[in-house]
Amino acid sequence: MLGLCLIWGAQQVVMKAVAVDVAAVMQLAIRFAGASIFFGVWTFASEGRGALADGTLRSGLLLGLMFSLEFLLLAQAVNHTSAAHAIVFLYSAPIFTALGLQFLPEERLRPAQWSGIAVAFIGIVVAFLDDGGRPLAELMRGDLLALLAGMAWGLSNVVLRRGRVGTSSTAKTVFYQVSIAALLLSAFAFATQQMTVVPSLRALLALAYHTLGISIATYLVWFWLLRHYLTSRLMLLSLLTPLFGVVFGAAFLGEAVHVRFGVGAALVIGGILAVNARQLLQRGR
Predict the structure, then answer these.
(1) Is the pLDDT of residue 201 over 80?
(2) How far is the C-alpha of 31 from the C-alpha of 179, rounded, in Å?
(3) What is the pLDDT of residues 101-113, one digit of tens each?
(4) Coil, strand, or helix at residue 191?
(5) SS3 of 197, please?
(6) How far is the C-alpha of 166 from the C-alpha of 179, rounded, in Å?
(7) Model's pTM, two decimal places?
(8) Cα–chain center distance at 130
(9) In the list 69, 149, 252, 283, which could disulfide-bond 74, CB 3.0-4.6 Å?
(10) Which of 2, 8, 9 is nearest to 272 (CA)?
(11) Neighbouring C-beta atoms of residue 58, cutoff 10 Å
């Protein structure tokens, strides 16, 4: 999971570096289209023409819709609020996931663990929250969109954990998500005239990284993890992703890092340790 957070943190830097060549929404649409071809071929080659007739279609479509809404809402949010605000509210997702899974005994968190989640989320707020110089009304609109994106991300994990799609193969699970996202994001890019694509070596390398590295390799690992470990714990660990993004931004794009980032990062790590304290103690023994 730590490796995934490192890779996902770097993707923001890569997207920003080639945004002048390929619009961010188009980067997402292209990478999901490429991944949908890969996972579609895999799914139908292994399961045949009736691959989607196994009772997973309804929950699979819902999963794909939640996944797509996360990116669509986030794309709109950054037009109205600061990137820092968008990160804070997007990463409310672990809270929504934990709330949605509380009725499962193995996923239910104790009060001390809820305190750990609260501390970790406060750490994200401390590390990233600033107004970006935008008017309050516009900030609130963007913050709400980012919060809804976080909710969509959190609920997609609930659908995966509780829906029939959660019993299907990893390839089919990812196919539902990336194929629907490719269609909706392409339509959104067309409707909003964000279809800029200027061929260049760095753009091709970035798209290859996003498609092969992110939407294929890391999604395979992520959904394998979701089937073998507690979803709420994994989602909490995902809070490390934006922290790594800031580190990579400072290292490769020369972006400034403030003291409050260090304080926030310490709170995030402390919250993660608090939630997983019992498991860590048991392993120590």
Answers:
(1) yes
(2) 10
(3) 887 777 777 888 8
(4) helix
(5) strand
(6) 17
(7) 0.82
(8) 21
(9) 149
(10) 2
(11) 11
Selection from 170, 173, 191 nearest residue 63 by Cα: 173
- Position 133 confidence tier, pLDDT thresholds 50, 70, 90: low
**Residue carrying the six token digits 């310490």:** 266
Backbone angles phi, psi at 22, to 5 degrees: -135, 120
The two tokens of residue 166 are 């959660």
- The first and second tokens of residue 22, run together, are 């390929």
Amino acid code (one letter) for 37: I
User: Counting beta carbons within 10 angstroms of the beta carbon of residue 225, is it exposed (0 to 12), middle (13 to 18) or buried (19 or more)?
Assistant: middle
Instruction: Output DSSP code: residue 168.
Output: S
DSSP secondary structure letters along 48-97: -GGGG-SS-HHHHHHHHHHHHHHHHHHHHHTTTS-HHHHHHHHTTHHHHH
At residue 135's C-alpha, the angle toward residues 129 and 137, to 5°, is 95
